[in-house]
């Protein structure tokens, strides 16, 4: 399961996680930090086309990146109540 906490409305526009970026996200970068997350846990950073390489490189250099998928393939979940 992909964890997109904070997305209450499934039609809400998803925004890139790049610092200061307001562009719509088109990619989901699935990652986990093996020092603090269980192996099956996946955190998600959202990315526009322009920031995909930068965010991918940042996570890859640390050994955190697990997969990159189109936003349309991410499962959206409601935030905890």
What secondary-structure arrangement, pairings included, does this model have?
Blueprint: E1 27-31, E2 43-47, H1 49-61, E3 65-70
Task: Describe the overall structure.
- The chain has 81 residues and is of the alpha+beta class.
- The chain has one domain.
- The protein has one helix and three strands, in the order ββαβ.
- The chain has a three-stranded antiparallel sheet, covered by helices on one side.
- The longest helix is centred in the C-terminal third of the chain and has 13 residues.
- The two termini are 19 Å apart.
- The relative contact order is 0.31.
- The mean pLDDT is 85.
Q: Rg from C-alpha positions?
A: 12 Å
Please count the helical segments.
Answer: 1
What is the structural class? alpha+beta
* Count of discrete structural domains: 1
Strand order of the largest sheet: 2-1-3
The counted number of beta strands is 3
Keyword list:
single chain; about 80 residues; globular
Q: Could you write a compact summary of the structure shown?
A:
The protein has one helix spanning 49-61; strands at 27-31, 43-47, 65-70.
